[in-house]
Amino acid sequence: MKKLMDRIARLLLYGFALMLSHSAPVFAVDGKLNIVTTVSPITNIVQNIGGSHVKVTGIVPDGTDSHTFEPLPSDVKTLQAASIIIVNGLDLESPTLNLANKVKNPATLILQLGNRALTEAEWQYDFSFPREQGHPNPHLWLNIALVMRYAEIVKDQLIAMDPVNTASYQQNAAIYLAKLQKLDQAIFKCVESIPENNRKLVTYHDSFAYFAPRYGMTVIAAIQPSDFSEPGPQEVISIIKQIRESGVPAIFGSEVFPSKVMAQIARESKAKFVDQLSDDALPAAPNHSFIGMMVHNMTIMTEALGGNPTCVANIDASNIPF
Length: 322
Ligand SMILES: [Zn+2]
What we know:
Blueprint: H1 2-20, E1 33-37, H2 40-50, E2 54-58, H3 75-80, E3 84-87, H4 94-103, E4 109-112, H5 113-117, H6 144-161, H7 166-193, E5 200-203, H8 211-215, E6 218-222, H9 233-246, E7 250-252, H10 260-269, E8 272-274, H11 290-304
Parallel strand pairs: 1-2, 1-3, 3-4, 5-6, 7-8
Pfam family, one: ZnuA
GO molecular function: metal ion binding
Subcellular location: Cell envelope
C-alpha cells in the first residue's frame, strides 16, 4: 500500500514537473532522480545517500587526472538528461562546468559542494594552488569533517527535489554520517600513533591541504607545480634539502600522477618513496568506496611514517546496500 502511495505521489510530482516544464526538476523515466556527478568520491557519497531512489552517473573515470579532465562528446547527453549536477567545485571541474552550463536543461541546478561547505575565507592556497593564480586547493574531501558537510548538503538537496522519499534520504544520511564519524576518529588515532616528529607530509600531488590541519599534520611540501608539469632542477634541490632537514622517513606519490622526479628526490633525500596514496581514485572491490579509499590511504601513510596501521582495521568501508 505504501509502495502504491509512493508511486502515485511520484507520478503526480512527475506530472507537475512536466506541467512546469523547464522550471521543475527532471526525473528519469523510472521515477528516479537522474544525478550526474564528477569525481569518484562525490559519486560514491551521493550514491550512498540517494540509495535506490537515484541513478548516479559519475563522468570522471576512476584513475584519471580530475584536474585536467575534459568531458567527452558523449557526456553532453548525460549532462542534458540530468535532474541535478553535483560537483566538487572550487575550480576543480571547470571544463565540465563550462560544458554543463552550455547544454544542461535551464532548470537543472549545478550544486558545487565545496563552495557550499566552506566560506571563501576558509579556502586554502598553497604549493600547487598559489593564491596569485586564483584557484584554491579543491581537495576538501580528504578532511572527513568537510565530507560530513557534503553529506548534509546532498541529503538536504535530495529531500528538496524529491520530498516523497525524505525518510529514506534521512535514514541513509544518518547511517553514512555515523560511518564517517567513526572514520574521522580512526584517522585521529592513526596520526596519534605516528611519532610526533614524523607527522609531516611530503606528497607529489597537493591534496592534503585540508586533511593536515584537521588531524595535526604539517604538509612540508607538495612537489607537483601548479601547471601539473614536473618541477625544475632548482626546485628539486630545494625540496631535497627540506626533506633532509625535516627528517621525514617517507614521501608519497600516487598512481594517477607518476613522476620520475619523486624517485630521484627519495634517493637523494634518503626518504622512502611510497607511491600509493589516492586523492580521488577508489580502491577495487570489495571496498570500492570513498571510505575504502581513506582506509587505504591511512594504512599506507601511518605505516610509512612509523605509526600503527591497525588504527583503521575496524572501519566498515562497505557501501550502504540498496
Ligand atoms: Zn587532486
